[in-house]
Amino acid sequence: MDTKLVMSFKCAEGGTFSCNIDDPLDDLTAVQVAAVMDNMIAADAFDIKGGLREKASAEIVTITTNKLF
Question: Distance between CA atoms of 50 and 6, rounded to whole angstroms?
Answer without folding.
Answer: 21
